[in-house]
């Protein structure tokens, strides 16, 4: 495979990608922290990637605070579109593929059954719009690319853009309260960064470019996700269901954003395991 440049090695997904690939003896020689590169700065990005000389760039840098995107649209588009454009142009010049990550939030949730890669995107938020625009820019500039759409991601490193805490840890942290209110009318698939890293490794071996959904299997509401966390952790806190309207978040979110990993199966790769199994493993391996 040659050298792989990983942008965001210190982030939630980047940490597990690096750890898993190292375990498979595929050394990621171009490790770049999120504070060490500004993908919006073309000259800086070009210089860093040229010095690494990779045969593949994996980019995990993103502006993914969904509600902040509503107020900071310029910043969101700068990272999620212009940053992606810069990396795509650099990769085209170097004649190497770019792997980039997108989201279930490019869909409007009206389908009510798992979305395949060919379903029509209709984002409901500025975050979703910016991520979809990033996809289009990549496809416009590059022939060799991997666009990976994720959903409900959680990992041990936490999410840098959200104060380094994922939903699982947030629920555990809030267990000091008598009750926690969680949205019950948004259905998703919680997805483990470890499982994604394993499947990315397999995908890269195939060399088959394109758009891929990559989530654990099964589905639940955020409320059901919280209840399963509470059950596995044996928390005493009462988890109460509320509606999206009652929660009152700034950005609109799809009521159903479950993804079908159709294209992975199409190229002969197996589905990721069920989300409950992945969550159980995550909780059992928590370093606390």
Question: What does this entry look like structurally?
Answer:
This protein is an alpha/beta fold. The chain is 41% helix and 16% strand. Strands 2-1-3-4-5-10 form a 6-stranded parallel beta sheet. Helix 4 packs parallel to helix 5, helix 6 crosses helix 8 and helix 8 packs parallel to helix 11. It is globular and about 55 Å long. The two termini are 36 Å apart. 46% of the residues are buried. The mean pLDDT is 91.
Summarize the structure.
By secondary structure, the chain is α/β, with parallel strands linked by helices. It contains eleven helices and twelve strands.
Question: Could you name the key traits of this structure?
Answer:
6-stranded parallel beta sheet, alpha/beta, 11 helices, two-stranded parallel sheet, about 290 residues, globular
Strand content: 15-25%
| Integer average pLDDT | 91
Helix run count:
11
- Classify the helix fraction into a percent range: 40-55%
Radius of gyration (Å): 18 Å
Global outline: globular
What low-confidence regions span 5 or more consecutive residues with pLDDT below 50? none
Main pleated sheet: 6 strands, parallel
End-to-end span in angstroms?
36 Å
H and E string = EHEHEHHEHEEHEEEHEEHEHHH
Strand order in the sheet with the most strands: 2-1-3-4-5-10
Helix-strand category: alpha/beta
Beta strands, count: 12
């Amino acid at each position: 495979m040659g050298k792989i440049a990983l942008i965001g090695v210190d982030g939630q997904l980047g940490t597990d990608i690096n750890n898993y690939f190292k375990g498979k003896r595929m050394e990621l020689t171009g490790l770049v922290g999120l504070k060490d590169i500004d993908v919006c700065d073309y000259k800086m990005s070009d210089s860093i990637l040229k010095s690494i000389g990779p045969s593949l760039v994996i980019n995990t840098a993103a502006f993914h605070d969904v509600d902040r995107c509503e107020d900071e649209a310029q910043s969101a588009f700068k990272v999620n579109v212009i940053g992606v454009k810069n990396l795509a142009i650099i990769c085209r010049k170097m004649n190497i593929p770019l792997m980039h990550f997108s989201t279930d939030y490019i869909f409007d949730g009206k389908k009510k059954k798992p979305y395949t890669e060919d379903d029509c995107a209709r984002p409901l938020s500025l975050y979703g719009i910016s991520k979809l625009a990033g996809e289009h820019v990549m496809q416009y500039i590059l022939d060799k690319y991997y666009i990976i759409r994720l959903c409900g991601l959680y990992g041990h490193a936490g999410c840098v853009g959200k104060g380094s805490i994922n939903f699982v840890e947030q629920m555990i942290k809030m267990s000091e309260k008598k009750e926690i209110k969680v949205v019950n009318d948004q259905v998703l698939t919680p997805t483990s960064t470890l499982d994604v890293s394993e499947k990315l490794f397999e995908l890269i071996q195939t060399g088959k470019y394109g758009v891929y959904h990559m989530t654990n299997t099964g589905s639940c509401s955020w409320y059901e996700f919280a209840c399963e966390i509470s059950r596995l952790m044996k928390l005493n806190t009462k988890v109460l269901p509320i509606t999206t309207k009652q929660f009152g978040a700034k950005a609109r979110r799809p009521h159903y954003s479950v993804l079908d990993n159709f294209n992975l199966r199409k190229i002969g790769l197996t589905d990721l395991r069920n989300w409950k199994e992945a969550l159980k493993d995550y909780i059992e391996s928590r370093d606390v």
